[in-house]
Amino acid sequence: MKAMQEQISIKFKELFQTEGSFFASPGRINLIGEHTDYNGGFVFPGAVDKGMIAEIKPNGTGTVRAYALDLSDYAEFGLTEEAAPEASWARYIFGVCREIIKRGGNIQGFDTVFAGDVPLGAGMSSSAALESTFAFALNELFALGIDKFELAKIGQSTEHNYCGVKCGIMDQFASVFGKAGSLIRLDCRSLEYKYYPFNPVGYKLVLVDSVVKHELASSAYNKRRQSCENVVAAIRRNHPQVEFLRDATMEMLSEVKADISAEDYMRAEYVIEEIQRVLDVCDALEHGDYETVGAKMYATHHGMSKLYEVSCEELDFLNDIAKECGVTGSRVMGGGFGGCTINLVKEELYDHFIQTAVSAYKEKYGREPKIYDVVISDGARHL
Ligand code: GLA
């Protein structure tokens, strides 16, 4: 991180002949609770030690001048709706500015150089890290007084309105609210949350990155969300109190089976079960029962693969290897369609599992998966 900060600083001086302030925001993991956030359910994320860093300085004009160090790409754009940039990375920053302005925030142009070490398209929320970095920084630099939840929502609205992904609140929430050593259970309907110190003695959490990028997955993601909304609309005819799938039961779902598509039925079945799994995992954690935590993770993988259909061959393969190696819990993490599995592994099994996963994956797919040990870290901050 220090090295990254130094490189940013050199480039910033070269481009803008001055110095700014540094801000950082992390990517996230999620222990369990996938595709539950936009259904008003529970999620269980934590921030990681990888994220985005930006140096930023207001420039007293109406123009943003931004340099993406990792892409060696420069963009300039204004702050009005018509002044949107072309480059997709710049649209995240533009979107954050626009969402702040829509909320009445008085901001001006600024200069920035940013870089990151959270892998792109790996299901670790690099885009939320970018949004949170700028939302947090602009709030501070322009003394806007926006609260942390609203900062997360600014990132989420950026995805909806400028990047075409109808995401839930989990990623931006985790990136802003993260706390070293703790996972956070968030109720995405009431927005109540609770920190759970996470220190599974004798176990490690490790990500195995299939290096299958999920970049083109946004339309499939939005389609999943649409399925959930279709089912809610059908259930509401008999149960008007049901606002989200969170409020629905399997009985209610059976009642409408004939009125909805088989596909929508499977999607809703997965979500209803997954919301319950998050609560079960919280209970199990309170009793130090990691076997149950792991079993629920496998159940989530099965649901994501067979009912929600957001896994892929490579991720199913990695999940099978974990099972064969006796790993306690394993599942595809994040939105899916590529990216990582998250694995809860007994320490004594760790080396064997990693070696087996790397060599078997390489043999089958001709490339090595990447391995990231999970270090649960702090959220958005001024460095
Ligand atoms: C993506 C979205 C989140 C969430 C997850 C799946 O990361 O951005 O809001 O829906 O997928 O749990």
Low-pLDDT windows of residues: none
Please give the radius of gyration in angstroms. Answer: 21 Å
Average pLDDT reading: 97
> Roughly how many Å apart are the termini?
11 Å
What summary fits the major beta sheet?
Answer: 7 strands, mixed
Overall 3D shape: globular
Sequence of secondary-structure elements: HEEEEEHEHHHEEEHHHHHEEHEEE
Give the class from helix and strand content and strand pairing: alpha+beta
Helix content: 40-55%
**Helical stretch count?**
11
Number of strands: 14
Strand percentage: 15-25%
**Which ligands does the model contain, each kind named once?**
alpha-D-galactopyranose
Plain-language structure description:
The protein is an alpha+beta fold and 383 residues long. It has eleven helices and 14 strands. Strands 1, 3, 4, 5, 6, 13 and 14 form a seven-stranded mixed beta sheet that branches. It binds alpha-D-galactopyranose. The site of alpha-D-galactopyranose (GLA) has 11 residues, from α5.
